[in-house]
Amino acid sequence: MKLLREIVGYVLGGVLFVGLIPTLMWLASGMPDLLPIDIVRGGVAAVLMLAGLALSIWTIIYMKRRGKGNPMDAFGHEVAPRTSHLMTDGPYRINRNPMLTGTLIYLAGIAIVLWSWQAWLVLVIFFAVMMVQVLSEERRLRRDFGKEYEDFCKIRRRF
Question: Of 16, 43, 90, 141, whose CB count within 10 A is highest?
């Protein structure tokens, strides 16, 4: 049951962040043709999208291997098994939320492809919703890890 729950959590996350949010951005932009695209804009978008996905995937793999779980809660509800210890190294040397940072970088690449204010608006709304989630998650991490998390907050930025 634990493995199934974990798989479902990762699949739902992938569908939401890699598929659904970009689709909403595209729909909000008026469903523009994606090709052809200016080579410079396409190159910048591709670099951002690949870098963002790479950072997010590195974080997921790192959490699974080192943390034996996932710190992600969906607004206070455990989506996948939580990490057994505070993650402070690996991708967490970059900031306290490398998976979300990677997702935001990926979505910025999508917004560049779509090249519309509507796509950027969806990204801003997504970020606002995720900030509520991050603040909720930070409260849980403070409860679970106490001073260790407080000390980590002093040396790593949120993003």
Answer: 141
Residue with tokens 């090249």, as numbered in its chain: 115
Strand partners, 70: none
Please give the angle made by the CA atoms of 99, 102 and 129, to the nearest 5 degrees: 70
Do 63 and 71 touch, CB atoms closer than 8 A?
yes
* Structural domain for 14, as ranges: 2-31+38-155
Number of domains in the chain: 1
Q: How far is CA 59 from the centre of its chain?
A: 9
Torsion of CA 80, 86, 92, 95, to 10 degrees: 100
Identify whether 32 is preceded by a cis peptide bond (ω within 30 of 0): no
Global pTM?
A: 0.88
The confidence score (pLDDT) of residue 88 equals 94
CA nearest neighbour of 63 among 37, 39, 113, 97: 97
